[in-house]
Design a protein that fits this description.
The structure is a single chain. Helix content is about 40%, strand content about 15%. By secondary structure, it is an alpha/beta fold. The protein has two domains: about 5-130, no CATH class; about 140-385, Rossmann fold (3-Layer(aba) Sandwich), CATH 3.40.50. The two termini are about 35 Å apart. The structure holds adenosine-5'-triphosphate and magnesium ion.
């Protein structure tokens, strides 16, 4: 079972994730927008927030009718009292029926020192919280991580991306299209190696729903195993071979906010099929000379597909394994940014031991070190790829 499923956040971690001042957590709890539980860590009982709770918080905040809420607040202010200056006023009819209580936990004494511009101290806590998060739906629903070159970090970034996006309350389908099954492994689904894969869907006409397993709340997966390595020959003989994956995905697309595939490091028919299915291609390029050299092949493969299938693909190039101490890394990043101006992501993923450790532990980098560079890089990459 995936460790991600059991993940829980401390108030400080939640505040960072939700981009709010930690002081707001008590008010949100009182308003019924957040529920915490107590967990014993050693001899100390700590306040924690479970993954499903974090997800429903984000879903609530995204769906909140902010205009109505603010209009209501304003009318309340004109009728009876001034607009609240403290983050303690009740607003229970926007929550799920919770009663308003006075503060008393004292848990907010040491606020996290994060300067959050969006949070205005005079705002109602719910308004402040809702304003702090991006409330739009993902710009591109069907995404893939791609590079014909091996070892650039595709499976690592796919796994971290889908787990991070799931934390934001999006419903996600991850698809492993590599016989190595690294995405399956990174998501800690070791049992996935005996389960149906995309091979069964595309070759044996298994309904795609039957190949989907649940990894954690909000995160589903079509796993992969070595059997996928042999898919190209039978797939080649199928009619409309490159469209089969796209058509299968369309059968379940309405159930998800985001569908993300990890691909194999080759110019395979399976990868071409995903290029037909995808709206956004995230090319992962390691900041080393050989990876940079391979970029011309990657880009020409994408252009060929666009011509052959008469479509236009959005492309983003993600610099990965960047090491600011290495001149060569700096040079490659500079080249990527100048040659691929406009499509190279602003986010750069540094080479960090935390990401390697996350791969080893088959977990999100948050559980390795929630304050490290790896978490910051994955946070900014996730936001960039979701809200392009
Ligand atoms: N930013 C990073 N910092 C440190 N280690 C990284 C980083 N990105 C990837 N790695 C490590 O590099 C190795 C290769 O990564 P990964 O398996 O994701 O590459 P890939 O492109 O999927 O490979 P393949 O082409 O074989 O599928 C893994 O051990 C992973 O932990
Ligand atoms: Mg891989």
């Amino acid at each position: 079972m995936s460790a991600f499923r059991e993940m829980a956040f401390t108030p400080a971690e939640f505040a960072r994730l939700a981009k709010i001042d930690r002081k707001l957590i008590d008010s949100l709890e009182e308003e019924g927008f957040l529920h915490t539980f107590r967990k014993k860590v050693g001899n100390v009982e700590r306040k924690m927030i479970s993954l499903p709770e974090v997800q429903s918080y984000f879903q609530h905040m995204r769906n909140l009718d902010l205009e109505r809420l603010m209009a209501d607040l304003e009318s309340q202010a004109t009728v009876s009292e001034p607009i609240p200056q403290e983050n303690t006023i009740g607003f229970s009819h926007y929550s799920q029926g919770s009663q308003i209580q006075t503060h008393g936990t004292g848990a907010t004494a040491a606020a996290d020192p994060i300067p959050i511009e969006a949070v205005d101290k005079t705002m109602h806590p719910v308004v402040a919280a809702a304003t702090a998060i991006n409330r739009s739906a993902p710009s591109y629903k069907k995404q893939m991580f791609y590079n014909v070159k091996g070892g650039t970090g595709k499976s690592t970034l796919t796994a971290q991306y889908v787990m991070r996006a799931a934390m934001m309350g999006y419903k996600i389908l991850a698809i492993d299209l590599d016989g190595q099954g690294h995405l399956t492994m990174n998501l800690d689904c070791l049992e996935g190696h005996d389960l149906p894969t995309i091979y069964d869907v595309l070759i044996n006409d298994l309904p795609i729903e039957e190949s989907i397993i649940n990894v954690a709340p909000g995160l589903d997966l079509i796993p992969a195993n070595l059997g996928i390595c042999n898919i190209d020959i039978p797939l080649n003989q199928k009619p409309r071979r490159e469209y089969r994956l796209s058509e299968a995905i369309d059968q379940v697309a309405h159930e998800y906010d985001l569908i993300v595939a990890d691909t194999n490091p080759a110019a395979s028919i399976l990868n071409s099929s995903m290029l037909v299915a995808a709206d956004l291609v995230n090319v992962v390029c390691a900041t080393n000379p050989l990876s940079f050299h391979g970029m011309s092949l990657v880009m020409s493969t994408i252009e060929e597909m666009e011509r052959e299938f008469r479509m236009e693909l959005a492309v983003r190039i993600i610099p990965n394994m960047y090491d600011s101490r290495e001149v060569i890394s700096q040079e490659v990043l500079g080249e990527l940014r100048s040659q691929f101006e406009g499509i190279c992501t602003h986010s750069v993923v540094n080479r960090t031991v935390d990401l390697n450790e996350a791969t080893k532990r088959r977990s999100t980098v948050w559980t390795v070190n929630s304050k490290g560079t790896g978490v910051n890089d994955i946070n900014s990459l996730t936001e960039e790829l979701i809200f392009i």
